[in-house]
Specification:
By secondary structure, this protein is of the alpha+beta class. It is 49% helix and 17% strand. Strands 6, 9, 10 and 11 form a four-stranded antiparallel beta sheet that branches. Strands 3-2-5 form a three-stranded antiparallel beta sheet.
């Protein structure tokens, strides 16, 4: 490679300094050797390569073929596979450019691009408020700085819980935060303190545990999504919710007193539920009987009145017939229950002697 010179040997920018061998910025160049000739370097490299190769291997054509083969092999090194439990994170000169799903993919060969394939299906666990001893879940060492919290009614409470999570986006997980597990831990602890600070101690110790876990999981996931951590929260589990050890005896006494109170209230409500429905049933029965009697008396009175009006109208039309009919009906009612003997007047002269059974009449009178 030849360097272009002017006719006055002043260099490519001319000789503005009157031939004093200065560079274009006005400074005298240092006494350095001439720059290397690139063509000469390539020629020497080619000669050295020919010396290494066999004697029958020569010529520019063979060198070009070998160079092409090496180039193809280098390009093929960019093929990579991502397993089903992994995600591929492609880096270009150390910068994250994309995330690939499981399967076969291609990236520019090294050193331009490289790929990291972290496992995204492994479930991770963060212990808050305690540390497991011996690898078991029953033996735990309490961490008071993490476990002690204040409830909404200003009572102290001791909570141990665990957060299960896994990687959702490997690129965000590796490059958006310096320490994602520590971020998940701090965020979970802060959210749990906020939820407990809005919950009464009695609710947290009894029926409110499921609601606390559900609220903590959703709130933690929303916060991590806002931070773009690339983490999926699988579950939040409360392992123990207890009052502090210093006051646990007094707290248990209060709990027993509340249980006795609830027992008495339940017994009273059971008695009330037995008596009140029974009294209401009896009252409804009495009301129904009274209404039935009322209907009976009213209907009977209406019937008697209608019958009297009917008889009266008949009497006005024919008094004699009506009087005779009333007389006969009355005598029928009177004599229907009386023991009687009817003798015709024509039989008085036939020798029939009337018989009066005085002994039977006396016996009947004494009964």
């Amino acid at each position: 490679m030849n360097i272009l010179m002017n006719d006055n040997d002043s260099g490519p920018w001319g000789n503005n300094g009157g031939g004093n061998n200065q560079n274009p910025w006005g400074k005298r160049p240092q006494n350095t050797p001439n720059p290397p000739d690139v063509d000469e370097i390539l020629r020497k490299s080619k000669d050295k390569f020919k010396k290494v190769m066999p004697s029958n291997f020569g010529g520019g054509k063979s060198f070009s073929i070998l160079f092409l083969v090496l180039l193809i092999l280098w390009l093929l090194t960019g093929i990579y596979r991502v397993n089903p439990q992994e995600q591929g994170v492609v880096l270009r000169f150390g910068e994250w450019v994309r995330t690939t799903s499981p399967g076969l993919h291609y990236h520019l060969p090294t050193p331009i691009e490289k790929v990291i394939t972290p496992d995204v299906t492994r479930e991770n666990k963060i212990e808050i408020g305690y540390r497991a001893v011996g690898g078991g879940s029953t033996n735990r060492r309490d961490v008071a700085d993490e476990s002690k919290m204040i409830t909404g009614d200003e009572n102290n409470i001791d909570i141990d819980f665990v957060v299960f999570w896994k990687i959702a986006d490997a690129g965000k997980y590796l490059f958006n935060l310096q320490d994602p597990p520590e971020t998940v831990k701090v965020a979970a602890q802060s959210i749990m303190r906020d939820i407990i600070g809005q919950t009464k101690i009695q609710t947290a110790l009894t029926e409110g545990r499921q609601d606390i876990q559900f609220k903590a999981k959703n709130t933690l996931q929303a916060l991590l999504d806002e931070y773009e951590v690339g983490v999926e929260v699988r579950d939040v589990q409360l392992l123990s919710v207890d009052p502090p050890k210093e006051v646990i005896d007094a707290f248990n006494d209060v709990q027993r007193a509340r249980q006795d109170r609830d027992t008495l209230i339940n017994e009273a409500e059971a008695f009330r539920n037995d008596i009140v429905p029974r009294a209401r049933g009896e009252a409804a029965q009495m009301i129904a009987q009274a209404e039935a009697y009322e209907s009976q008396v009213v209907n009977r009175a209406k019937g008697d009145a209608d019958r009297f009006v009917s008889v009266y109208n008949s009497y006005k039309n024919d008094p004699d017939v009506t009087s005779s009919r009333i007389y006969l009906e009355t005598m029928e009612k009177v004599l229907s229950n009386v023991n009687k003997i009817i003798m015709d007047k024509s039989s008085s002269g036939s020798g029939i002697v009337p018989y009066l059974p005085l002994d039977k009449l006396q016996n009947k009178g004494t009964k």
